[in-house]
Amino acid sequence: MREVINLTWGTTDIYVGPPENSPYNSRNYYSACQYDLYNVTVKKYDVYKVYNGSTFIGYQEYYGGSYIVNDVKRPKIIKYSIDVWYK
What we know:
Elements: E1 26-52, E2 55-84
Antiparallel strand pairs: 1-2
């Protein structure tokens, strides 16, 4: 299964600049794709369609075992800001 990840910058979000007593006069906002690491157990199944002649009866599943996959990367969207000084 594939999961689509996206981020839409809305017009109702409020973004503020640096404080007035800050040495910076602007704040830039960024978005990035970061990853969390997981250990995942994958279960294997063999699935077959069952027919009686040309009539479809259903599915037959056979369990094929499980496997542990370490350090699977799951993407997540992050937002961050950096204060800067523009002349």
